[in-house]
Recover the amino acids of this structure.
């Protein structure tokens, strides 16, 4: 950039200088100057997704593994809208993402051209830091502020809207100075002491851990605190990233169904939140409560997203003089054989899981056996659907593979959720990402069979159940994968699944396994 | 419904009584009572889409053909977000749609459960009538108001948010009285006379027609006015629904590229808008103007969405004493042979188009020859991408086939756009819809090659062009279709395309043709 850079060039240089050097994108005309500027900043890697839900989900997966944000580049309001569901999930997981949303040139907006829409309102669907650049001069500074916001504690979604002329006009000052992450704040000593006193008392305490506390070290510290105090240790239902496996203490997850979750927390008088929010029922149901903790239970936020979770847990360990605890023994199920069901499905996955794998889990009802089966597997990272909006798994696995090069990624995906953003497979193939995709293909939105019963819906009959039916035609995921350049195979037994998984892990690049399962019976 | 209905039952009964008897849906837990209520109202047809962009695009296509709105049923903010891009397109086409968006129960919202989001803001991305039901008692009345809003002149998007408890609690009053469409208002006589006087004068006038004026009758009346007065007759670039073909006068469309569109309108002193808005450039470009009409040209809105376009055009015919005009002669290209290019692609489609077909056109650059080639085909309806947000074609064709039973639907789809919402093929197969899908597969976002040049983007090199590249792997649309239960074939010559189209039209249910084209050279 010996010549005066334009706004787009200054923007990308600023991002790269601050460590944001991957951009997942599906651009359009209003983003052409950004795209052109990719050639002037060699350090920025552009990765194309064939739908914006892939783009935003991949940015989430990347950041969860790389520990720093990616950028997205989205085309006006509709592009942001298409990416919104996975931004919602990222926000719930507190993943840092820097969204760049192109817009019409400042002077063109008044004409209400066909693609004009209310970008600012759409962005409120996944709220966080938000700004609209006013001029090319300000773009680099705006980008630095966006990165700083994404990297703050708690970080999250930062969305910068760039009218096209702010990208194409000159930005003589060039890039903004690099920004660094904000360090999380320590938890106040008084708060630690108060919680330590409760843990030492006879009161029944619960530790509810999530977020950044679910590293190996965080989990060990939490387990030590629980063992020393007798507190009940439970993790979030759907952690953004959890380190688990042999050698790491086990942590029960809070069960999705509120009535069972209530049993897990029964009798607890003080629930201590460690980088997690108060547990509530995912949905409301007639005659079922919205909250999970017992009536009268005190909710204590010890650590929230602004705080250093590890330091707080270490301080509790010290305060309690908590002895070390054993991690889980290594061990996994034998390779299963016979029919595929929820149990043998989990066993096949656990029996074959590679060392240091990254597991992306959007398996929904079909994955109910996975947690138990994989508990003693070699240590691995487990990434969940954090915000309840289906369609995250395949994009998340795509981004995780970019963010964790050299590691094997396993995406355990349900059929209905997988259909939402199946386009991700093309990016996996295009970027030669080592992702083994297992589709739990039971031909239904099986969770809705359960939910229809649970909401007590009157008169749900064949027309209602037909809305959950993914058969007629059956979906052939091997053909779908082949259409996007991904090899694969269909399996109908547990031994075939285990064998196919071995092949998938031995394959360079993505590989898909269409595992035919019976629908869950509720 | 002898028992007291619940809110959901009263809602669906109200919709059906007002003629809204098709609901495209992808529901979730918060919509289970609506789904259950489908079994209590037999007249309501539920049609499942495997992604919300399919649901909203299908509702658009349905209404364009059926002439009345469908309902959609969407799952909270993320479901609405997933459907937003095609709602944006529907809004730009002024299609009536009644969106039902489920939400958490009123008392549950305070807990910020994982799927909680700002639905109201997201809905502002495709603005129109909006309401949030407050209680089960009010749901039926709210639904009636939503239908009335969608059916008013101009109609459009009506979005009703239903907290789950407003669906499951009793609604003792049951359904609301049926609502009927609002008749469009007549254009004031003075406005007709003023425009007639201009048309009779020596001033150079242009008639810019769109919306509901593009029926066979409206087109004929507009052509008579133009012929009698010497006015230039041009239609919208991307009509929502245009009747065209042999026997109907031809109308040039305003060209997408602003510099060519300006040539079409050069010298015009008074541009008369007939159910169309003032033409503007789709995007801004450095050193190119935003508006299309010549400087100083008077823009006269004779007919907007509230008005009866046909009556206004008939009044102009009478005022001018305009003689009848000939329609286009029947005629179509010979069946082509040899390599596939933009010309032979169009010829193959024109040579085989069935009588009274419905053509859904999201062919982008590959379809540049279609308008000319099909001008003398048997009369047919042509449906365009109205709002510029790609991913409408396959959903639109799905809904059009539901809304126009017995007619053959042809979807001409580009590869990049088709990948956005390819899930629609499953619904085509599931509902046995007679849709011939032709994918113009040139392996690129070819329009962006052109736009990168047009924006004058500096230094766009290989990294930029790689963002438009849909190869490595090549997308195999036949495999994709097969994965969703749709038969098909790949063609690489013009004669093979024509033969394949014959097979597609002879096939009951959907059929896909993957037509391999060279990228456009710009």
């Amino acid at each position: 950039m010996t010549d005066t850079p334009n706004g787009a060039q200054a923007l990308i240089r600023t991002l790269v200088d601050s460590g944001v050097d991957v951009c997942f994108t599906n651009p359009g005309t209003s983003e052409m100057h950004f795209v052109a500027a990719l050639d002037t900043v060699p350090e920025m890697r552009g990765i194309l997704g064939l739908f914006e839900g892939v783009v935003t989900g991949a940015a989430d997966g990347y950041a969860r593994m790389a520990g720093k944000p990616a950028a997205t580049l989205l085309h006006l309001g509709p592009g942001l809208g298409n990416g919104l569901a996975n931004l919602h999930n990222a926000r719930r997981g507190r993943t840092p993402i820097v969204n760049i949303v192109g817009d019409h040139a400042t002077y063109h907006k008044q004409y209400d051209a066909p693609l004009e829409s209310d970008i600012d309102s759409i962005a409120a669907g996944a709220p966080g830091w938000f700004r609209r650049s006013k001029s090319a001069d300000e773009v680099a500074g705006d980008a630095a502020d966006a990165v700083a916001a994404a990297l703050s504690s708690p970080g999250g979604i930062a969305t910068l809207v760039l009218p096209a002329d702010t990208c194409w006009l000159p930005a003589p000052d060039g890039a903004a100075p690099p920004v660094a992450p904000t360090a999380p704040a320590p938890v106040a000593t008084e708060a630690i002491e108060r919680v330590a006193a409760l843990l030492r008392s006879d009161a029944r305490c619960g530790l509810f851990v999530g977020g950044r506390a679910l590293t190996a070290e965080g989990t060990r510290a939490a387990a030590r605190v629980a063992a020393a105090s007798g507190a009940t240790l439970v993790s979030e239902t759907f952690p953004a990233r959890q380190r688990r496996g042999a050698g790491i203490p086990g942590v029960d997850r809070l069960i999705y169904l509120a009535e069972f979750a209530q049993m897990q927390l029964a009798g607890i008088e003080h629930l201590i939140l460690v980088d997690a929010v108060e547990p509530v029922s995912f949905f409301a149901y007639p005659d079922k409560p919205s909250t999970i903790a017992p009536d009268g239970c005190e909710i204590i936020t010890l650590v929230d997203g602004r705080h250093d979770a590890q330091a707080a847990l270490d301080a509790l360990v010290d305060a309690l003089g908590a002895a070390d605890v054993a991690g889980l023994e290594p061990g996994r199920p034998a390779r299963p054989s016979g029919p595929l069901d929820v149990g043998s499905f989990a066993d096949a996955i656990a029996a074959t899981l590679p060392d240091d794998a990254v597991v992306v889990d959007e398996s929904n009802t079909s994955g109910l056996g996975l947690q138990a089966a994989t508990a003693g597997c070699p240590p691995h990272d487990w990434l969940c659907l954090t915000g309840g909006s289906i369609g995250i798994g395949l994009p998340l696995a795509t981004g995780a593979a970019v963010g964790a090069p050299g590691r094997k990624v396993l995406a355990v995906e349900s059929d209905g959720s997988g259909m939402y953003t199946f386009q991700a497979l093309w990016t996996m193939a295009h970027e030669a990402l080592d992702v083994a995709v297992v589709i739990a293909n039971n031909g239904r939105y099986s969770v809705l069979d359960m939910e229809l019963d649970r909401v007590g819906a009157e008169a749900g009959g064949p027309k209602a159940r037909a809305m959950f039916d993914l058969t007629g035609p059956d979906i052939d995921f091997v053909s779908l994968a082949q259409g996007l350049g991904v090899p694969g195979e269909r399996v109908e037994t547990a031994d075939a699944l285990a064998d196919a998984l071995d092949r998938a892990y031995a394959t360079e690049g993505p590989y898909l396994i269409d595992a035919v399962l019976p629908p869950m019976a509720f």
Observations:
- Chain A touches chain B through 106 residues (CB under 8 Å).
- Chain A has a mean pLDDT of 96.
- Residues 76-92 of chain A form the longest helix (17 residues).
